[in-house]
Design a protein that fits this description.
By secondary structure, this protein is mostly helical. The strands form four sheets. The chain has a three-stranded antiparallel sheet, with no helix packed on it. The termini are far apart.
Length: 473
């Protein structure tokens, strides 16, 4: 296994680094807030250290204002609460009712969800109007997300991507948080003839079909079936509901592994396992189409551990992956490149720190889940791997320390095939730039570890949401 796991690393040992992360983070949030023209839409990634926009879909604005709320949670500075709250009220409504994307969990749970979580935790004063406002937004968001439904031949289905009803993205497993939160609040999707459609059932079926079609298990599915590999996109015939082929939008090919998609799978499955264990799952009928609750849980564990193992085998010694495990320039790198710390300034292929920070959180959550489920050895391995990756990301060359660089996490890659990422003069590949999702997830990872070190309540996306029975009373 290339990654070097530190089994003695603890959250408390990382506190000085985390405090430094948030010391750097605050001025960068303020810089974006001061300089970003709202008419340009959503900041997406940096060019020469300044945030810029790139039209594809508006999936990163929740990370912009959610970052301010995470900063407030960590440091208690009310300037950031105000930025996060005002940005949510003024600019996030269109994301709640956005029928054209699969990104509701990214945009709306990061904003309305964080505000509700802060209120439930007592970190901001209880306000009935604000609570009702956030809960209504989260209910509507979950239902709108669930309405993007493609039915398959076996009667189950999936939430289709912005590409259309044929397209299942591996990313969406983490965006299913919107369905989970809305279900936990007691909401349903109302269909034709007033049919009440369970949001939990759709979450479960989407997760199961992601595990079936987006994740490989080394079971001979095709000539490139390596355990833990993921395909960015699974393509279906929407008329018959039959699977046709793998595909990739942001990776190198359908038969290689785009590592940010891999990371979304690790984190998404681990979070859904936590949600189900916490009692967030639905009634028995919600699991009927997938063989029952236990079979669903076992498949999620299978998918989470397979993808985690693949990540740990295919990242560098310090836990940072290349942007795609089959990228065409990798053969130019030394044969031992995975057994050394990653070099973001190499001349052949970029690394992707945003994949690393998402994977680190997923590895920790998976490890915590397995430890609590009676598998301490495997749990410790994943958890300590996540902490080891976090330590790398909380320091240079990945932590952005220059005060004029608006990004927080350096060496993030957006869309390598489309050539959207900035390449600096003298460099051969993208490096030195940041993304809104990378920065948000660095703050979220840092907050998760910091809260544990402080002895605070474990950070989950559903932690600030009342139980289903409370929500309906």
């Amino acid at each position: 296994m290339p990654i070097k796991i530190d089994f003695k690393l603890t959250p408390k040992k990382l506190v000085p680094q985390i405090e430094h992360v948030f010391e750097l983070s605050g001025p960068k949030i303020l810089s974006i807030e001061k300089s970003w023209p709202s008419k340009l839409g959503t900041p997406v990634f940096t060019v020469k250290g300044k945030y810029t926009s790139r039209g594809w879909t508006e999936w990163t604005q929740g990370f912009q204002y959610g970052s301010a709320l995470l900063q407030f949670d960590a440091m208690g500075d009310e300037r950031f609460l105000e930025i996060g709250r005002c940005g949510t009220v003024e600019r996030m409504a269109s994301h709640v009712s956005h029928i054209g994307v699969h990104d509701h969990g990214f945009n709306n749970v990061s904003t309305y969800g964080n505000l509700l979580r802060l209120m439930q935790a007592g970190k901001i004063p209880h306000n009935a109007d604000e609570k009702n406002f956030c809960e209504l937004a989260l209910k509507v968001s979950g239902a709108v997300q669930a309405a993007r439904w493609t039915k398959l031949a076996d009667g189950t289905g999936f939430i289709h991507s912005f590409n259309g009803p044929h397209s299942l993205f591996v990313d969406t497993i983490r965006s299913c948080r919107s369905l989970a939160v809305a279900h936990q609040l007691g909401h349903v999707l109302m269909g034709e003839q007033d049919a009440k459609i369970s949001l939990c059932q759709r979450l479960i079926e989407h997760g199961v079909n992601t595990a079936r079609y987006s994740v490989y298990y080394g079971e001979g599915r095709d000539a490139y079936d390596v355990r833990g590999r993921t395909a960015h996109e699974a393509v279906f015939n929407p008329t018959s509901g039959v699977f046709r082929c793998p595909n990739s939008q942001q990776g190198y090919s359908p038969f290689s592994t785009w590592t940010r998609g891999l990371a979304w799978a690790i984190c998404g499955f681990a979070e859904q396992l936590e949600f189900l264990r916490a009692g967030g799952g639905g009634i028995r009928s919600d699991f009927q189409g997938v063989g029952g609750a236990d079979q669903c849980r076992q498949l999620f564990i299978k998918a989470a551990t397979a993808t985690a193992d693949f990540y740990l085998t295919n990242c560098s010694a310090d836990g940072i992956p290349m942007w795609d495990t089959g990228a065409p320039g990798l053969h130019h790198l030394p044969g031992s490149y995975l057994h050394q710390p990653a070099n973001p300034y190499n001349k052949h292929e970029p690394v992707d720190s945003s994949a690393a920070v998402i994977a680190a959180q997923g590895l920790m959550r998976l490890g915590n889940y397995l430890r609590a489920s009676g598998d301490p050895k495997a749990g410790a391995r994943y958890r300590q791997a996540g902490l080891s990756v976090a330590r790398t990301l909380f320091s240079e060359p990945y932590l952005s320390t220059h005060p004029k660089h608006q990004g927080l996490l350096l060496h993030s890659v957006y869309h390598r095939p489309n050539g959207w990422d900035y390449i600096a003069p003298g460099q051969k590949v993208p490096n030195g730039e940041s993304s809104m999702w990378g920065d948000y997830h660095l703050r979220e990872l840092a907050l998760m570890i910091l809260r544990e070190a402080r002895g605070e309540v474990y950070l989950t996306f559903f932690g600030g949401v009342p139980t289903r029975s409370q929500a309906m009373t």
